[in-house]
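job 3f2a | input accepted
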Amino acid sequence: MKTRLGFCLFVGLVALMASGCAGTNQMYYWGDYSKSLYACSKQPSEETLQKHKVILEDIVKESTARNLRVPPGVYAELGYIYFRQNNNAEAIKYFDLEEKTYPESKTFMQRLAQAAKARDEGKNEEKPKTGENQTEKK
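job 3f2a | predicted structure (138 res):
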């Protein structure tokens, strides 16, 4: 009986000590990402998109402050939001950050960056005014 009790105490003590050594070593900071994404999916609107954008920016800031890597896809998602808002310079910046942080996303991020650059180039080209560069048909 004593050996059984002693063995149980020993096992319990070892388990307690082992669990005390395990730290909470986080790889990523996700903040309120899940709630924000759910709200954005459940009730899509400009307001929920803006709130989601703020959450993503907070994740980037907090990850940097905690010396953690920004979670996969956060830079890309933030870049895509900027792309949809026609802020192509910011979009390209975040696509590049995603590519540098997660090299496996290189092909996809380069394609998105090319699309943003092409959109910018299209803005810079002047469109012909009505009546200019048009040949008259007779």
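job 3f2a | The chain has six helices and no strands.
job 3f2a | closed
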